[in-house]
Amino acid sequence: MFCTNSEGSYECSCQSGYALMPDLRACLCFDGFMTSEDMKTCLDVDECDLNSNICLSGNCENPRAPSSVTVIWDTLSAREPRAAQCEIGAHNCDNHATCTNTAGSFKCTCAPGWVGDGLVCKDLDECSNGTHMCNNHADCMNTMGSYRCVCKEGFSGDGFYCSDSDECADNVNLCESGHCLNLPGGYRCECDMGFIPTLDGKACADIDECTFSDICVNGRCRNIPGLFRCECDTGYELDRSGGNCTDVDECADHTFCMNGLCINTPGSYDCQCAPDFQLNPTRVGCVDTRSGSCFIDVRSRGDASESLECSNEIGVGVSKASCCCSLGLGWGVPCESCPPLNSTQYRTLCPGGEGFRPNPITVILEDINECQELPGLCQGGDCINSFGSFECHCTRGYSLNIETRVCEDVNECERLGICGPGQCYNTIGNYTCICPVDYMQINGGNNCMDMRKSYCYRNFYTDNGTCDAELAFNMTKKMCCCSYNIGRAWNKPCEQCPVPSTDEFLHLCGSVRPGYYIDIYTGQVIDIDECREIPGVCENGLCINMVGSFRCECPIGFVYNDKMLVCEDIDECQNGPVCQQNAACLNMPGSYRCECMPGYRFTSSGHRCMDRNECVENPGMCSPGQCIDTVGSYRCLCPNGFKTTSDGSMCIDVDECEKHACGNGTCKNTVGSYNCLCYPGFQNSHNHDCIDIDECGVQRGLCRNGQCLNTLGTFYCVCGDGYELSADGRVCLDINECVVHPGTCGVGACVNLDGSYRCICPAGYYLHEETCEDIDECSQSPDFCLFGTCVNTDGSFTCLCPEGFQVSATGRRCQDFRVNYCFTRFQNGRCLAPKSHNSTKEHCCCTMHGQGWGDPCEICPSKEEGGLGSQSHADLLKTEALYSPVFNEKNTREAYPILCPFSGYTRGPDDNPIDVDECLHEKCVNGQCINTDGSFRCECPMGYRLDSTGVTCEGQFITTEPSLLNTDNQTHDTD
């Protein structure tokens, strides 16, 4: 403050930022400022810092704006502040300090976590000064006004308590190719052979042994995880250590350089071959690869050249080994004689002997396929190769020429009687028989055979032409009549057999005597083997063929029936009792046998039957039961699980499975007992049957998100709402209603939840019965479209405003933008004292404190209860209804807040209140206008006071006390 002396008085003036008080003796800071500690300057008050909730959900920005509380300091009277500085924010404590009121002043104390004098507080770094409480295994992290503890790597906890984490147990994949060893705050890898820990010890790295010196000499080193492998060069092999390659002595292996001279070299070998031989492509032996013709006839020309003449060519373009190691005697052009068998030249050419040769590629001995390489062999027949040899199979009608190895035609007709009674015609490789009547070609026309078979009789009576003693088997007429002492007649009706030595007999039998026939191939007279040709002759005896005849020798116990030509059994048991007591006679073919009855056995002499003790003779007779001997028999006592056979002779296992002993399982019978193989969902009990498994009680996690119900042999899940059964029926899976039922939420967004879903409705919609429905804003809030008509739309609404009104930026209100007169007074039914400038009705009535507006004048609604002033005013308002169409009919205390929802403020573009600086337009008469938040006030100088209007200072008597009026009718705060 500055004091300036004047004649008879003085004047006070204030520094920048201060305002002179009405008493003209004191200075005070403007609203929004506070005095400094030395009381010399005004400091801006940061309301955003003092009150963090001042803007609620918005962002607070501190302008140099006035506040609603003023601290007044009277420098002349040195009085105390009129209000507590801490409560009104008239202090300059640091944002992180606490203000404490003191007598005539205040004290600033830094909050915990901060250090300083209170006016300036700096963050206390607890981590640096050691005042923190972090665990030894935690890191301290300083924060503004505090600190935070974080457990170190390898430890877990809240930072104040940290315990070691077992990384090895938490992650079984650590230390691959090694073993994980847990350590306090970490872990270490102990690696397997062939691996080495990494620098941080957290993993195992493979050792590349191939980087070592003297590894895999004469080879290539291939590194593999944990090991290495040597791949030796050709001609080398691994030594016993497996780490180096040594030379292979190929000459020690007889499969190398066969038929040649082998010389070993480092990593290889040399093979030296004899003349006319060369090394095969695989270098394992020497072979003669020349090719030429093969001959089986070789003879000297008999001239001075001593050359050979070869003939009978059997192969072309074959090797010398294929020719000479087989049947060839000469080879090549000019012809060379094959080396003699077992000579040195032969052993070199044919090391495998006759029938074998070295393979020209592999030099391995192989069989010579004479049939393929020497096609001149077996002409006219079939050549069949065999291992080391071959065979010529001439077809029927051909015979093999041993010298030429060719199959030549045979003239079968040269053989006497080959066609029997028929005529023979020779063909190439065959012949044909022309057969007489009653004969039939057989074997493709190669034979004539009487095909008729009929009865054969032993006797024929010439006096009446009858026959008897029919044999049991049929035969041809030739076999019946030509065989010795077989038949006298044949066929039915019977025909007498021809008499021997007659032409008929010769024609039929081909011989003059019975018992003979003419061989169809050789034409010789051959004895008929009746024992072979007549299967039924001498049955049960021995048929002995004789030249021109046969005889039957019956064994003991048989007698010969000369009529039926068979040996018949003698039944000895019919000749009276032949066996002792307790024995039975059993006839057998050719004999008989005495057998003891069951339960008896022969004595040592074999002539008498005595009782058998079966239990002693066969100790395991009744196993596993007990054997009890009886006269002539025995019986078995069987244990549980066994039963006796129907004759009681042994104990057999009882098949318990026949009685379905297992119930809910498969029964498997065992000796003396049984086992149950239970079906799925059942288990064995102590009673050897299958009982149900309660899966719901045994298996944890079954039917998650549902209810598990046990049933016989299985279970089923009953899923709760919002869940469905999985494919395997074991758990309940969440149903994604948003996917299954698209459009569930209508226009809203569907968010799937576990077991349910949620609809998130867009603005203008609300959730109703699990769907988004439009909000009828017009019916919900009467404040919407005030002064206009509200029209509801999908998700929103529209305001239709009357003429002179416009929709606000938010679209929620019709703002009156009409500009007209603003009257200060309403008196005697008239609006008086218009203000100097026109304004909107809201600005006039709500901010400028007018009592009337417009032309014609519309009365401003009253903030007072009961309308505008007294009852007489209310009555007057009714008479002026035509001039106030909006409010005169609602002259109640509800009218004012409708027009003036933000009293002392003006409506911003987004309907938010903006403080109006009334002092720009509303000057205080004879006083000073001071704008306040939402209002203003008039301060009168000394000797003046405010009248009832609150905007005019009227002169009065001078008092020693300054007057500061803050009553409701003087401070126009309409909050």
Automatic annotation (TrEMBL):
One of its GO terms (molecular function) is calcium ion binding. PROSITE patterns: ASX_HYDROXYL, EGF_2, EGF_3, EGF_CA, TB. Residues 292-350, 454-509, 820-861 form the TB domain. Pfam families: cEGF, EGF_3, EGF_CA, hEGF, TB. It is found in: Secreted, Extracellular space, Extracellular matrix. GO terms for biological process: epithelial cell differentiation; system development. Its main location: secreted. Disulfide bonds join C657-C667, C919-C929. Residues 82-122, 123-163, 164-205, 206-242, 247-287, 367-408, 409-449, 527-568, 569-610, 611-652, 653-688, 692-733, 734-773, 774-815, 915-954 form the EGF-like domain. Keywords: Calcium, Disulfide bond, EGF-like domain, Extracellular matrix, Glycoprotein, Repeat, Secreted, Signal. This is Fibrillin-1.
